[in-house]
Amino acid sequence: xxxxxxxxxxxxxxxxxxxHAVRAQQPQPPPDPLGEQFFPPDLVMQYQQAIGLNEEQKNxxxxxxxxxxxxxTELQWQLQSEVETMLSLAKEPRVxxxxxxxxxxKILPLEREIKRTQIAxxxxxxNSLTPEQQARLRELRxxxxxxx
Length: 148
What we know:
Elements: H1 2-25, H2 41-46, H3 55-91, H4 97-128, H5 131-142
């Protein structure tokens, strides 16, 4: 049994270590300059005590998140329906360019509205935080998880 476990380790170790090395060599995605200016709700929730979030701020952020989630759900249902229709058009042996573009014209406004809702949410969250809380969140966000 020990021999089998050792053999398994010998066979699997190179795969594990090589896949780890490949991941380590992959380039990191470029920073998102716009995203760095905002704070997603989960980040604020994660560090609410560290940044001294008060009850009024918590309630305000919770209300904004709940409102945005309801809107996201509605938009995602609509978007999924329109994407399914586009997929049906694309599966045909010959795609009608006119139908495909008309369907795209239904999809793009939904995607735009989802992005608008996301930006509105993170803008409201940022506006509910003091400059000191924002600075502290930036600092906490930039630290590797092990150092917290």
